[in-house]
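To: structure subgroup
Subject: Chain for Friday's discussion

All,

I'm putting the inputs and outputs inline so they're searchable in the archive.
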Amino acid sequence: MAGAAVASLGALIDVAAVAPASAQSFTYNPLPPRPKPPKVANDNQMLVQATEVDYDYNNSRVSAVGNVQLFYNGTSVEADKVIYDQKTKRLHAEGNIRMTDADGKITYAEILDLSDDYRDGFVDSLRVDTADQTRMAASRSDRSDGNYTVFENGVYTACAPCKDDPKKPPLWQVKGARIIHDQQEKMLYFETASLEFFGVPIAYMPYFSTPDPTVKRKSGFLMPGYFPGTTNTGFGAEVPYYWAIAPDMDATITPRFMSRQGVLLQGEFRQRLIDGAYQIRAYGINQLDPGAFSGQPGDKQFRGAVDTKGQFALNDKWVWGWDGVLMSDYYFFSDYRLYQYRDPLGSFLLLPTEALSQLYLTGVGNRSFFDARTMYWLSYSGNQSQVPIVYPVIDYSNVLNYPVFGGEFSYKTNFVNLSRDEAVFDPITTVANTSSLCTTASADPLARTPSQCLLRGFPGTYTRLTAEAQWRKSFTDPLGQIWTPFASLRADAINSSVSNQPGVSNYLPVGDTQAFRLMPTVGLEYRYPFINIQPWGSTTVEPIAQIIIRPNETYAGKLPNEDAQSMVFDASNLFSVDKFSGYDRVEGGGRANVGVQSTTQFDKGGAVKVLFGQSYQLFGMNSFAVQDSINTGLDSGLDKPRSDYVASTSYSPNSTYTFSVRSRMDEQTWNVQRFEAEGRANFNRWAVSVLYGNYAPQPELGYLTRREGILTSGSLKIATNWVVSGSARWDLEANKINQYVLGAGYVDDCFVLAANYVTSYSYAAGTAPPVLSHAFMFQIGLRTLATSSTSSNSAGLQ
């Protein structure tokens, strides 16, 4: 029959009520309405579109032929021919079949025979594509009870077919003599299965099961892992079991079977609530051979740990949370290479020195910030008495939304209270006996002096409350000059109680000290930009001058310094009003900061920015020339009336290349005190960066010789999905590469393969030789099936 036919087959159960399909344009004309029968299941209408629709009144069959499209209960069927049998209530389709269900799953086949509710039937020569890009194929599948689908000679993969050659085997696939899909359990069961890569079998499994691709979380065993172990623990294997307790909580139990020490049990519980989430991890082992750790903290029968973290929202601006760690001994995590001992990348190379336990409350407003937390660091090195306890540290800052005297007004506060049991000394020189003097209890500990050691952490308690208010306003005069007056007032109330341990009195007053420190500041900043426009672009040259007037820093060098120990003077902080990095020190005395800044913008893209300047101590005491317990400011370039010169240059010709140079030069000899040059290039297929650093000796800080080195890194996309990368740090003074990383990885939509090798030297104080550490990390992942990773770490002397 020529032409197109459209029929609503909901009423075709009674085919005698339908007019013969003899017209060129088919129209359904029902008889006068009759009482409707009682509504039963699957009473939804079935819509069919086809080139030709034929009715077999004798056999109660309706046939649709030619470009058939059938829609029923959210499922569509496309085929060359579809036959619906009223008596058996079965749907039979043939030729180029494409069936799409309500979930987006697409089934391709040559023959399809199903009941009209799709609960039972069979399909020959089928391929199934799911909405999450997984695929199955089989010579035949049988469906029963609306739940079970059995694929004969089935193939499963999460890889897309090759665009150039769809018949080419995918990167990986799992074949099974039978694959059973239990739709209610949402499980796939594979019988007599094999795992193939590029069509080559590499593993055989008589039986295994996995959740179907629609499952995001389901109870069951996860991919096993291998633990290379150490001589003390032996090698081991992990078999994790995941338990999906409820939609909002789950648990993972991971026993690790160790060849020498027995079974290490690991458990993790997680729960997500309406306003946040938390998790708890627990570890425990009853060691079979504690003597393997003879003379070490691990020489005990039971060892274990607990760590937890969580965060909850009070509203859209406030959150509170915690991190916590408890251990039976401080070597437990490192001996068994457990979670808390790893860095964020999972590597065991850059080993952390402590674990942080804290309780915090944080609030963020439009122009305000609040943070309060208590902190306790659990030392992995056993020096717990030298680690401070902070209870608490509180920060609050706010910028008013309205002007004050026409300018911007802001204020901030900081409160800290901490304690430490034992002093922390670091050697200034590398002479062996001096190092011993600083790090151990020597025969004459009172000999520790500021010329030999730095007091990194004082013993005792320390409390400080800081409040500071700031105001500034900018004016532009008719000549284009920009004037910015500013003022601030800072007050510090300090109470310190320094224990009289050996050598501490050489650095700080021992006993109780109460101090009040007030620092009023007024200043003026001046800028006068000159703009030159050329056909190729524009250049802005801007002289900058800043004058600051304030009194001397009181109690300079006589109070503990915990948060202002870092001091690097360069172009980035040339115009900072207070160049100290924390609150425990405050810059005092009159100072002028001057410099010139130039920015060139090219019309064809790219820019060059240059800054050069110097700082001058105008009057009063120079805070950076005052020796404190750790010599902050000494050898910084600011510890003299005329500072060293600082300069920086950056050039970006386009989005591909970036070059920058930062330097500090002696103000009398122009000798380079600090120099860094960096270049970066980022193309479509490769990226590279090179950083060269050259730093003059800083004897007052313990750096007796010049430090010079090169850090390089790069990555290359050698193929569509293959990337190799590497980095190396070359110590030019020692003429040795003291760290390098080599890695390669393959990533696509269905498979991940990555391998990394890392090695580095850790240098100890005094004459101890450097320790060479190696780490190898390997990861493989099959999307929707499994992800596994393993790593090994070793260390030796060189």
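Points worth raising on Friday:
The longest strand covers residues 482-498.
Confidence is low (pLDDT under 50) at residues 1-42, 342-350, 763-768.

D.
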